[in-house]
Amino acid sequence: MAVKLSDLETPCFVLDINRVEQNAKRMRDTCERLKLTLRPHTKTHKTLGAALLQTGGSKRCITVSTLVEAEFYASHGFDDILLAYPITDNKISRCLNLVKELENFHVFVSGPAGLSTLKAHEADLPPAKVWSIVIEVDAGYGRSRFK
After folding, report:
1. pLDDT in tens, 57-70
2. Which CATH number fits the domain that encloses residue 114?
3. How far is Cα of residue 136 from the mean position of the Cα atoms in its chain?
4. Which of 1, 46, 104, 136 shows its CA 20 to 30 Å from the CA of 78?
């Protein structure tokens, strides 16, 4: 049944699936050709289907903005997740659970406080696991404490 865009209740999630599939494949192919790891962000769509398209079904190497998103994708078999939001002490226990559960869980650090938080909980990591850290470096916009 065809529906006109003007008849849809908003807000709603609408996309051209053929275009999305083509764009996702082009990005995967480009990164493969250049020998780069693609780590698509899921914050716009927040859907399992789109994340599967972005990863070509591999369920690996995604980026999320919240722990709720990380836990959602982990519960659906994704096993390499980057939390691209600065870590704080009140999030550590949930991060530790993800470190235990996933093959790879990476945390984002934008300043010394984040590093201190991780260091303070280093002993809580499971055996043979370490914090996998991505450090944001300021590129002139004042978004990071690391310059």
Report:
1. 999 999 999 999 99
2. 3.20.20.10
3. 15
4. 136
